[in-house]
Recover the amino acids of this structure.
């Protein structure tokens, strides 16, 4: 009989699990505390659970773990990339970013990705499958354990499109943000999406305890479609109409991620376009240097980025430049990639959004 993996189950599900094993519901709540708040790695650590039930738990369930396919090595900037192996042999990568600020982990939501963004190494894999809520949460717990730290920030900016795995990502976010569990601040959990409009609509309705960030990267439909095929399904006018409502509902500024590409999206006319798109949207531009992924694109020079940020300031648009971390270990934005001996699922993410 296959054992039940406990990480990924909610408090209510653990209460039901306890009752199925002949225990009162409060035993499930105790189990929840040990798993998420106290980060227990073994049933023997759960000292307030009856010894007989701990033995029973070990017979029918497992806490959950991810295999480490290779030792994580620390780069010069302190970041570490983890290659985790899942129970079916597939692999995903997560990146630990200390002092970024805070203790941050960049986690994956899928094995590969179906979006096909031209600048992203993960896109070259295609999509194998989505991660479960437990596999998502385990990345956080495993990195904490390996790095002997308590993480303060989680960003869903690793492999995959989070809103293409909506239910599991939202379930994981709720586990991460539960004050009685892992206890991360909702303002320190960020979910990045290329702009799957139906997913953003669901997000507005469900109001998960996390921030949403939008990967933009171009200011015209023609150029954005060159980089991101999803723009053909959800062009900029549709996306920004949704984001205006999103800003009105959430009352929060919208963060846009914007990879700087030489003579493609770093022109003064791009700032003019941004000023038009961002009208009535409180926004912040998070500029990112283009990292080498074999795309054939050229990164904007430091001078061009400085000039672009100056134009943004003149236009009244807030911007920051994200520090590049982990380039030497291919751990920076857009560089995550795991080679697998399987064929990916052929699917366009927006068809299942």
């Amino acid at each position: 009989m296959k054992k039940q993996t406990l990480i990924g189950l909610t408090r209510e599900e653990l209460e039901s699990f306890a009752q199925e094993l002949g225990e009162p519901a409060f035993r499930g709540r105790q189990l929840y505390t040990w798993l998420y708040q106290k980060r227990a790695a073994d049933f023997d650590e759960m000292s307030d659970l009856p010894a007989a039930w701990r033995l029973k738990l070990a017979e029918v369930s497992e806490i959950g773990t991810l295999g480490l396919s290779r030792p994580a090595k620390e780069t010069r900037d302190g970041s570490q990339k983890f290659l985790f192996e899942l129970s079916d042999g597939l692999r995903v990568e997560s990146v630990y970013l200390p002092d970024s600020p805070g203790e941050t982990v960049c986690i994956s939501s899928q094995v590969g990705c179906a979006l096909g963004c031209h600048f992203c190494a993960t896109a070259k894999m295609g999509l194998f499958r989505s991660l479960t809520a437990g596999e998502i949460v385990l990345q956080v717990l495993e990195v904490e354990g390996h790095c002997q730290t308590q993480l303060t920030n989680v960003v869903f900016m690793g492999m995959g499109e989070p809103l293409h795995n909506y239910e599991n990502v939202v379930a994981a976010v709720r586990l991460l943000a539960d004050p009685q569990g892992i206890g991360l601040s909702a303002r320190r959990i960020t979910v990045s999406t290329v702009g799957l409009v139906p997913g953003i609509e669901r997000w507005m309705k469900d109001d998960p305890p996390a921030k949403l960030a939008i990967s933009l990267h171009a200011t015209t439909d023609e150029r954005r479609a060159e980089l991101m095929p999803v723009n053909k399904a959800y062009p900029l006018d549709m996306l920004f109409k949704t984001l205006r409502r999103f800003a009105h509902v959430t009352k929060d500024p919208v963060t846009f991620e914007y990879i700087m590409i030489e003579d493609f999206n770093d022109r003064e006319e791009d700032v003019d376009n941004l000023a038009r798109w961002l009208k009535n949207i409180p926004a912040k531009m998070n500029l990112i240097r283009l990292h080498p992924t074999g795309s054939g694109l050229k990164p904007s020079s430091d001078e061009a980025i400085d000039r672009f940020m100056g134009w943004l300031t003149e236009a009244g648009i807030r911007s920051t430049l994200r520090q590049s971390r982990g380039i030497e270990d291919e751990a920076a934005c857009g560089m995550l990639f795991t080679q697998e001996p399987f064929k990916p699922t052929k699917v366009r993410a927006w068809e299942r959004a």
